[in-house]
Each structure stands twice: as structure tokens, then as C-alpha cells.
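Course assignment 3, question 2. Fill in each field.
Student: A.L.
Task: Predict the tertiary structure for the chain below.
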Amino acid sequence: MDRSNDFRIEWMDALRGVAALLVLVHHYFCLTCQGPLAGFFDLGVIGVVAFFCISGYVIPWSVLRAPTTVKKFVLARAFRLYPAYWLSLAIACAVTPVTAHVLLANVTMAQRFVGMPDVVGVYWTLQVELMFYALIAILIAFGKIYRPKVIGWTLAGACVLALTVSLPRALLDMKSPVAPVFGLVVMLTSFAFYLHKNGGFLTTGQMRHVVLGVFALLCGCFFLAYAKDWGYRETPLRFVISYAIGALIFSGFMKFNVSSSVLRWLGGISYPLYLIHVPVREAVSRAIPNELLAGMVSLLAVLLLSDVIHRTVELPAVKAGKAIASRLLPGSQYPASA
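Answer field:
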């Protein structure tokens, strides 16, 4: 691996750490949940958008750097996501028990696809990841993963879908599932940007027009989908500003190669941190009634526990996935970790 790729991993890891902290601070201290800032931006949304940008960029980075197959890609993603996820699910159920059928649905990570609720609210973003991975697997299967024009048309289709799912909210007062589609649009835009930066897809001016066009379409979708508050203090302006900030943070980290040892450490533990921070906060709050003190104790606890999970569950699982792939699926090189 050359030095540029090493550095690219560093800024992505650093950004993962910042994104995870934004979501955590939003849930622990609710800085933008109330008061004058509540109607303008949301730290949680900013963090999630940054995560979507990272996934849209890093997944093609890992897949396109070396030949792979659908089986190897699926195996890599499964060993990367599920072990830590299952542990977080066990922790969440220990804190707040759920019914057996809800638990079984959540074990698959596809609960929303079958109309079941998430045991932990943040799990919804993982299902957006699954949608994106499914698209990547299809592109690999049909040999189109290297075709920039196909990615462009896929992005265009996702934009049409985003507009389509937004209309029922505006016209029929029906709560259609807009957030996953918006996330998919962000990921595919980031994918197209990766191809522009690393494969010469479109000129700089053309890529700028694509990004601005997608953002304009999303802004229109926000005004359709969030003209009414569906229960989470949602306003169109709040999503416009939050999505813009999330994308700008991603662009800034890439442009200026932002990185530090602390941020890279946070990035390394960002997945388990993201998964367990809500149930940890709930458990601590039951023992410590003071909100600020509970938030501080929860922050320390979740950082320590996330580091343990990263070292004892996440990293060994990724290593095991690579070993199994090498033994059972010989042939093309196993994709790089992402």
C-alpha cells in the first residue's frame, strides 16, 4: 500500500471519530435538541451525514483497489458489522428487555424491512448501509463496479426515488420512509466523488454541478418531507443546514488531510461507540439522576467499553473473516478493511 492510501485511511479514521462524537454529544447532552439552535441544525444529523459520506467513499476505495467477488465482499462486510452489532444488541436488551420477535428481527439487522422496530434507535442507519452494500454487490456481480456511468445513473435513480418517497408526506400526510433514501443518495454521491478524485470521472466543474444539483434536489425533498414536524422537531431548514455541514466536514477532512492520534483512536472505536452509546447512557441515567453528571460518566464508560469491544470483538472478527475468505474462497485478493 502506498503512502497516499495510508494517509487517506488516517483522515477517514479521524473523521469517523468526529462523526461518532457528534452523534454521542447530541444524545448525551442534547445541545441542539432545544433552545434557539434547535431549529437550525442537529449535531446527530451532521454526524450521520458524515458517516454516510465516509461509507460512500471508503467502500469503493476498498473494493476497487483489488479484484474481489460478491462472496468475498459480503463476507468482509458481515464479519465487519455483525459481531459488534450482536454484542451491542445483547447490551441493549440487558438494559431494556424486548419481546422475542423484536429481538429476533433485530438479530438480522434488517428489522425495518419487515416492519419491526429498532431495539436501539441508531440502528436505522445500519440498514441504510445494508442497502448500499446490496447495490455494491449487484454492481460487482454484473461487472459494473468499474463503470462510472453506471454509478452516475444509479445516483440519478436514487435521486428520483428520494423525490418519490418525499411526495406522500407533502401530498397525502403519510409518513413515508425518507431518511434511508436520503442517506443512500449521500452515499452514492460520495461514490461518484471517489470516482472523480481517483478515476477521472467527470471534470472538476462537472462534478461540482453534480454535487450542487444533488444537494438542491435534497433541499427540495426536505421541504416536501419535513414541512410538517413528525415528532422530532423536524424543520426543512434544520436538515438543509445539517446535511450541508456534514458534507462540508467530510470535504474539509479530505482536502486538508485532517488527522491526529486522538481522532484516529476515536475513529478506530467509532463503530462500537456508535452502537452502544445509547444503552450505556440509559443504564447510567438510572443510577445517576443528575443529567450532566450522568452524561459525563456515560461518556467515560462508553469510551472505555468501546475500546475493549474494538480490541476483543471487532478486530478479531475482521481478522477471522479474512482467514475464512482466504481458506474457503481462494482466488482474487481479499478487499482491504474499511
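Instructor remarks: Residues 9-29+40-328 form one domain. The longest helix spans residues 291-328.
Grade: pending
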